[in-house]
Specification:
Length: about 90
């Protein structure tokens, strides 16, 4: 997928277009799940993280500036979510 095509979808999703966000989700959910699964080693945790990432992405879609690929943005959100989850689990 071209970066320009991703930006069109991002703009539409940021404006509230549900079908545009669904398309973005369909394109990137496997990548998000795989990164989360590699990090956690657990199917259920990876699914939970996938949901967290999609919620975070939906809330901050308007902040995506397109300086990097959308897949890179999702990768960073996923890694940060995995780290946050690990930190919460290690708290007493």
């Amino acid at each position: 997928m071209k970066k320009a095509d991703d930006m069109i979808l991002v703009r539409k999703a940021a404006a509230g277009d549900v079908s545009a966000f669904r398309e973005i989700t369909e394109r990137h959910q496997r990548q998000i799940y795989c990164v989360a699964h590699d990090f956690t080693g657990n199917h259920h945790d990876a699914e939970d993280i996938l949901q967290e990432v999609l919620i975070k992405a939906h809330r901050s879609m308007g902040a995506f500036q397109g300086k990097a690929k959308l897949s890179s943005w999702f990768h960073r959100i996923t890694i940060n979510s995995c780290i946050d989850r690990e930190r919460r689990a290690s708290l007493p």
